[in-house]
Design the sequence.
């Protein structure tokens, strides 16, 4: 079975419902608050006005960031995921109205970008490294595919197809080059899958294969004066922003946009971490379509480099602020950049790696990322967002309602709205349960209708019940045993099965109102990092089930650096705290504060130590109370 | 006895010779290499050309930083210290030539600043916070005083007096305000002491007393468009640089230039650390002259805040790069800024505090600063300098030959050239030995000629011999017992004296070819920092005698973060290494590297530990071999 065949009959989002104590309230706030707020922002920020002005054949007056069109596209995408799961005529009408504005702004030749149409129509496709025309095209296509799948309406799909055709005409013909920010590649693969038009597959392959082989990006970096973008804020913003593409000495740094080598030769994950994730996600889809060994090997090699040398314990990616990305092996400084969008991109990539291989480790990492590196990005009330997700803070890092470069909030919105895509999968004739989330799926496997209904107490306890009915049809069910489970028990109608330590437990039978009960033991674990990680030397992190924990100043009397050798003693579920969390309590060693008056340094070992209590909360929940210090890695 | 009387009969630099195994080679390189190189830089950088153009009544064509005149002044000052200690007709001729250029550039009304005279003559005294006219004046005066004391020539002193008179005419009359960068205050006090002209004392007092009470700095920050400096690089450099005076929200931050409160009310050391040291040094001189309790109390309070809450173990000051200065109590991050000039400024301040009080703790801190925070700033060969002195490096921080803002190299040059000022002191009728450095002093105490000749093996061993002769006159001699001495023995002509644990041992006798032998025990000490210092929690630093030690990658196999619980086992003097250093060797615990293939995080306590050897070198000597990581604070 080729990878292509394996995923050809995937489960659609509309077949999945989510009804989960942990995730449903977050998804409801995402739908009712975030997506609604995003819509208001489209008007307030001038995003919709840009489209209107283009439709009215106005000139100038562009508002917002030069890639502001994507705000509208991402909103449509998130709203479409909502519409795929429930009727909402009011939301659907708003979506139709925005789509209509977009369609009216499309140029007769299919081109669509309000910045260039309003400000520099003559400079299309001249500044591929900075001006994000292809990035915008990608988000348009993703929105169109989501909208078509949710509503079966082709209104936006037609716009996307016309623009994709235009891109296909231009690239490889008039222009040879790749975008500075990957995105269109994975979008074209989505478009190929809904249209079956192989030109989009070929065009995605063109962009993926050319990266690292072309000289256009290097040429643009050396010749900024000839490029489009000079009219945007007098070119100063663009000119300042493009420093990310250069080394300190001003020479071109090929790593930033993953152009240091052809993808198939790359050994390490480099550069801007969101761009890297989008490229690798697209390349994985390409590998699924093409079944090409060399590409698959390179993706697995990159995943291994990332997960064994360049990933935070939260699943967060990219330590460095300046390039918003990766640096060197084992550089995992705790004032991490770890952009929320990079965690989201990692979910996209890992989902595709799962589809390619059927391996549980990718679903394990999606779970780790969802509960930690991603979820920390969203405030408990759903209205504020982190761009950066450090693992340690002095208390001066806080979520915000919106950003000038507002990529994270809408990205979080579309992930939460499409969460159903990550729970179940079908590969060949097997049905996979990848995430334990309350809800249900009803789908068809080899002609048989399978209904599966799930109750889950994750992340607070590892008890899951799954009711399965296929009217007696025999369907292999693969249940993921989470890598964090200390031990597992699985029964079907009360009869025990032998579960592996991790990976999938396959259960095949003629399903007829059967009940599967799973229990995953959630012990509190003290983790340590590889000795090469300088930032975590002599430190431990507390983990329980899928959740990484942290200490916050609000719960703990001492400055956080003073806690040493934390020994967890108990866990308590506190429904009143942080919308309900299980806290880890324990004792740690702290220095006796006596005798230090008037001294800053003194001979070591004069300080007595005493035991004191500590309370740890889930990392995702930090910075939702009074501002204060936070630490994931505690002194061991 | 008032403080003024106590120092009135101080020891002049020309009475002291230094002949010391450790310091003399450094002083010779300073004289032969650095001061010579500095002179060449004066021509190359256009500094002298600026003076020539003003003398020739040219307009425009100013070269270098807007306060570039100080390069010439600092060079004259350093060269004068050299001339005070040995004849050097060639150097003296060069000094005379530069002085002549400076004198020719002085305006008829006494004003002297080549930037304003060449570029914006109409904008004198309009931009006190950024344009450094008074800072330049201060360095001119310091140079003039040093030159006069060394040579008894009044050529530069006359220039300085004329400019000081001009400043005195303007300030408090036409202009009310204080400079953004303190320096003139301490210079005016020096000028007062050589001229006995009380107007300079009063003017210094004016600047010191007005700081924190005036509104001019705040007004300038809010009205940059009306100020001088707009012609300097189109005003962009000045405009960008002045951000240091503002909070992130653009409002004026009164702390940067120590203007948050009147000095007498200040509780904590704030802002740019070099400026703070220069202000406090001047204020201490003022306290010596005025004997004013409130001022003395505030200075002692500030010193206590600095030394017990805001000082690196090396004596370095100021953790933060953005403001080159102080932040909050116990913020002693190891990627310290700790500017070399701040350590030098601390020496200046502490010397004056000693003169004010006669307390040994100030001489102790001068010793600590000289051997660590200051000396690290200069490469072993004397040709390269650190601006910043971190206590931990990944291996990417290196000394440079010169800087665009070249304050540190000439500041280091003038301190090394004037080192003799810190060895001996006279207060009242007592002669103090403050630093143990080989060499001699011949001075007059209460009419008696005292000759004192010193042999010292510091910093490598604590053995010191002092021969004293006063032709039978009785002179109280106060010998500092260093705070680092684990124990001390002192004999006079072989007879033991009881030495205190620290402070001064006073020995009074009729000195007649007597020999004092001192032995200070230098044990290796593991120091810890106050528990509130987050950066050093769970860490220890190694110290021996006055020297702080560090680990460098070149001497140690493992990444430095892996060394835990360092146990010193021996010290060895290695004449071949780093121009001769005593190294500390020992054993530390490091993680077993086995079993980590393919893992980045795993349950703690699975990693076995093993003992391995380490070698520590004096902190001042780091970054003099192949580039690599360095750490002062090791895991305990």
Sequence:
């Amino acid at each position: 079975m080729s990878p292509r065949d394996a995923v050809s009959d995937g489960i659609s989002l509309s077949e999945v419902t989510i009804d989960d104590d942990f995730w449903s309230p977050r998804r409801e706030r995402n739908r009712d608050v975030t997506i609604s707020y995003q819509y208001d922002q489209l008007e307030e920020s001038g995003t919709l006005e840009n489209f209107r002005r283009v439709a009215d054949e106005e000139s100038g007056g562009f508002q917002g960031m030069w890639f502001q069109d994507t705000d509208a596209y991402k909103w449509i995408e998130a709203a479409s995921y909502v519409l795929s799961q429930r009727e909402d005529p009011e939301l659907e009408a708003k979506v139709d109205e925005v789509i209509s504005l977009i369609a009216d702004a499309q140029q007769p030749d299919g081109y669509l970008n309000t910045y260039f149409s309003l400000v520099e129509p003559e400079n299309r496709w001249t500044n591929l490294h900075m001006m994000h025309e292809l990035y915008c095209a990608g988000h348009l296509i993703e929105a169109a595919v989501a909208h078509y799948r949710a509503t079966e309406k082709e209104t936006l799909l037609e716009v996307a197809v016309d623009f994709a055709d235009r891109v296909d005409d231009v690239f490889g013909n008039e222009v040879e080059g790749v975008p500075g920010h990957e995105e269109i590649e994975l979008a074209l693969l989505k478009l190929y899958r809904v249209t079956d038009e192989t030109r989009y597959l070929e065009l995605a392959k063109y962009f993926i294969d050319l990266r690292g082989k072309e000289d256009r990006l290097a040429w643009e970096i050396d010749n900024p004066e000839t490029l489009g973008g000079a009219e945007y804020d007098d070119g100063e913003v663009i000119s300042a922003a493009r420093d990310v593409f250069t080394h300190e000495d001003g020479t071109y740094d090929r790593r930033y946009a993953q152009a240091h080598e052809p993808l198939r030769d790359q050994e390490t994950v480099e550069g801007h971490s969101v761009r890297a994730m989008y490229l690798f996600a697209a390349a994985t889809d390409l590998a699924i379509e093409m079944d090409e060994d060399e590409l698959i090997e390179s993706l697995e090699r990159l995943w291994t480099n990332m997960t064994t040398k360049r990933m935070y314990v939260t699943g967060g990616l990219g330590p460095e602020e300046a390039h918003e990305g990766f640096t060197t092996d084992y550089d995992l400084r705790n004032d991490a950049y770890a952009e929320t969008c990079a965690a989201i991109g990692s979910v996209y990539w890992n989902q595709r790696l799962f589809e390619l291989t059927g391996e549980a480790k990718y679903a394990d990492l999606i779970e780790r990322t969802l509960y930690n590196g991603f979820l920390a990005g969203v405030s408990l009330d759903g209205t504020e967002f982190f761009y950066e997700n450090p693992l340690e803070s002095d208390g001066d890092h806080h979520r915000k309602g919106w950003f000038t470069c507002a990529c994270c909030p809408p990205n979080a919105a579309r992930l939460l709205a499409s969460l159903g895509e990550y729970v179940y999968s079908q590969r060949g004739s097997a049905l996979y349960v990848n995430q334990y989330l309350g809800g249900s799926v009803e789908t068809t496997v080899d002609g048989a209708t399978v209904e599966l209904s799930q109750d889950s107490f994750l992340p607070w306890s590892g008890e899951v019940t799954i009711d399965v009915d296929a009217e007696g049809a025999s369907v292999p069910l693969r249940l993921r045993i989470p890598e964090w489970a200390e031990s597992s028990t699985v029964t079907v109608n009360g009869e025990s099965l032998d579960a592996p330590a991790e990976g999938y437990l396959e259960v095949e039978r003629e399903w007829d109102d059967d009940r599967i009960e799973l229990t995953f033991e959630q012990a509190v674990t003290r983790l340590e990092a590889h000795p090469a990680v300088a930032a975590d030397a002599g430190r431990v992190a507390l983990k329980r089930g899928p959740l990484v924990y942290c200490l916050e100043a609000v719960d703990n009397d001492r400055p956080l650096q003073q806690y040493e050798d934390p020994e967890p003693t108990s866990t308590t579920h506190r429904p009143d705290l942080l919308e309900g969390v299980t806290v880890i309590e324990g004792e740690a060693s702290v220095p006796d504060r006596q005798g230090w008056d008037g001294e800053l340094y003194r001979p070591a070992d004069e300080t007595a130590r005493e035991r004191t209590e500590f309370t740890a909360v889930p990392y995702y929940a930090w910075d939702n109370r009074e501002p204060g210090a936070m630490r994931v890695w505690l002194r061991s």
Observations:
- Residues 1-8 of chain A have pLDDT under 50 and may be disordered.
- The longest strand of chain A covers residues 564-574.
